[in-house]
């Protein structure tokens, strides 16, 4: 009897354990189960003093919050990259293709390779940048700089766009090598190329994987990590070291370095735009690099615009389970105690002030917590108010804006119907908002 019941007892124990683990990683989609929380106050300094004007914010509180995001969440750049600043001499640009009559005469096309070299010059990483500049717009034009998921050749059917790397980071040399879903033009639905150009904006894009591979196994031994950090893998990272989001953001800043050298565009009017993990990256890029004139986060969710403390949809614990390499190792310390995070995502939005920022959500994208994304925008208001009245209109906590309504002045927001995606409608909203801020 004893011998027979023991295995059953053990089996029950294992199943209970598995269930507990499973429950731990189940996302909450019930608003009534969102825990009570208090957000850190972006205007109260670590010594308890209260910021009352923009000068104090910039001199004291902003650097404190920025350092916390670096240390606790996204990770610090290696010191050699910090010290090198913008336009490091180990990043060079080479335009490999130009056409004055692209897209049926709508645009000038330039394809440029940004080469990142190791300090000894022995190793190199190439990032392909595709630039379309509208021919009919007054030059230099403002720019949308976007990061894409599957390669520059996927955003347009233009047969002359160079074939790009695969998601894995391997290079494709022929169309036949490209997997279904990553072929030429397969992502045209996410990039309103003609609309952007006809509205007077240039569009520059690069494939984020060129900068650092997106996988726990390959990330730290390839791309810019391989060039500028001597990691053997995740295990050898220090607790505050940069994660993949920081690396992609650093790459976006190098793309802006290139745009600063391009006379067809106005680099003081560049909007950085990203979707989902690249929406998280866009926010961190805008916070880290004040040269970006506008920041657009599309459905960025946890680790992006969504408040961590709400634990609705994807939570800190859930994101850190498999995607810990996007962040500094330190971020996992908050898996079970998110309320101890000294920052929350409204403060990431606030770091962009006084520059315009736009946050977009999708109604069915509950994994990204649309309400949490909206609340981040709302709770960044006190910082934006240091620079001007009613940055977000008269919005309140209670209610999300109506579907498809664009709200806000310097903080823009909309929620559209549908799923996690970037649509033509989202682009219409971004262009409308950019028209107010980037057009002369
Ligand atoms: C996963 C991840 C999200 C991320 C998304 C994406 O769903 O959990 O945090 O935003 O991938 O980037 O597509």
Structure commentary:
This protein is of the alpha/beta class. It is 30% helix and 18% strand. The protein has helices spanning 2-24, 54-74, 79-84, 193-198, 223-228, 244-260, 277-288, 316-322, 345-350, 370-379, 381-384, 424-438, and strands at 91-102, 107-117, 124-134, 141-148, 202-207, 265-275, 294-298, 357-362, 391-394, 411-416. The chain has a nine-stranded mixed sheet with strand order 1-2-3-5-4-6-7-8-10, sandwiched between helices. The chain starts with a helix and ends with a helix. It binds alpha-D-glucopyranuronic acid.
Helix and strand layout, with pairings?
Blueprint (H helix, E strand, L loop, with lengths): L1 H23 L29 H21 L4 H6 L6 E12 L4 E11 L6 E11 L6 E8 L44 H6 L3 E6 L15 H6 L15 H17 L4 E11 L1 H12 L5 E5 L17 H7 L22 H6 L6 E6 L7 H10 L1 H4 L6 E4 L16 E6 L7 H15 L2
Parallel strand pairs: 4-5, 4-6, 6-7, 7-8, 8-10
Antiparallel strand pairs: 1-2, 2-3, 3-5
- Number of β-strand runs: 10
DSSP helix fraction: 25-40%
Low-confidence stretches: none
Number of helices: 12
Ligands in the model, by name, code or SMILES, are: alpha-D-glucopyranuronic acid
The structural class is: alpha/beta
Envelope shape? globular
Mean pLDDT: 94
How far is the N terminus from the C terminus?
A: 85 Å
Indicate the proportion of strand residues.
Answer: 15-25%
Largest sheet: 9 strands, mixed
User: Helix-strand pattern, N to C?
Assistant: HHHEEEEHEHHEHEHHEHHEEH
The radius of gyration is: 22 Å
Strand order of the largest sheet: 1-2-3-5-4-6-7-8-10
């Amino acid at each position: 009897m004893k011998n027979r019941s023991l295995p059953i007892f053990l089996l029950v124990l294992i199943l209970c354990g598995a269930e507990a683990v499973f429950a731990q990683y189940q996302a909450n989609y019930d608003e009534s189960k969102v825990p009570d929380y208090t957000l850190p106050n972006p205007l109260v300094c670590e010594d308890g003093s209260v910021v009352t004007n923009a000068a104090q914010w910039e001199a004291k509180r902003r650097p404190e919050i920025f350092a916390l995001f670096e240390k606790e969440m996204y990770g610090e750049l290696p010191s050699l990259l910090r010290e090198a600043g913008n336009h490091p001499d180990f990043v060079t640009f080479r335009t490999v293709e130009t056409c004055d009559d692209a897209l049926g005469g709508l645009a000038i096309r330039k394809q440029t390779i940004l080469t990142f070299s190791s300090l000894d010059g022995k190793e190199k990483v190439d990032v392909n940048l595709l630039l379309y500049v509208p021919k009919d717009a007054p030059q230099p034009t403002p720019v949308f700089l976007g990061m894409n998921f599957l390669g520059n050749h996927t955003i347009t059917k233009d047969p002359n766009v160079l074939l790009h790397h695969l998601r894995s980071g391997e290079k494709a040399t022929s169309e036949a090598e490209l997997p279904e879903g990553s072929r030429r033009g397969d992502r045209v639905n996410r990039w309103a190329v003609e609309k952007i150009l006809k509205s007077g904006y240039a569009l520059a894009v690069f494939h984020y994987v060129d900068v650092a591979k997106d996988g726990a196994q390959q990330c730290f031994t390839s791309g810019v990590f391989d060039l500028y950090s001597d990691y053997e893998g995740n295990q050898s990272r220090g607790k505050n070291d940069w994660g993949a989001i920081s690396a992609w953001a650093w790459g976006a800043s190098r793309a802006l370095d290139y745009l600063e050298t391009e006379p067809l565009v106005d680099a003081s009017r560049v909007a950085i735009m990203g979707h989902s993990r690249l929406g998280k990256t866009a926010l961190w890029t805008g916070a880290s690099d004040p040269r970006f004139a506008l920041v657009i986060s599309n459905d960025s969710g946890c680790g992006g615009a969504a408040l961590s403390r709400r634990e609705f949809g994807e939570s800190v614990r859930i994101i850190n389970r498999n995607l810990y390499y996007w962040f500094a190792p330190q971020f996992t310390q908050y898996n079970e105690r998110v309320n101890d995070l000294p920052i929350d995502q409204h403060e990431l939005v606030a770091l962009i002030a006084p520059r315009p920022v736009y946050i977009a959500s999708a109604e069915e994208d509950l994994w990204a917590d649309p309400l949490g994304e909206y609340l981040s925008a709302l709770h960044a208001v006190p910082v934006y108010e240091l620079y001007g009245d009613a940055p977000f209109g008269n919005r309140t906590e209670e209610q999300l804006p109506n579907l498809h309504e664009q709200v806000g002045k310097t903080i823009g927001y909309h929620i559209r119907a549908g799923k996690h995606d970037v649509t033509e409608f989202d682009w219409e909203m971004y262009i409308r908002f950019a028209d107010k801020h980037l057009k002369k």
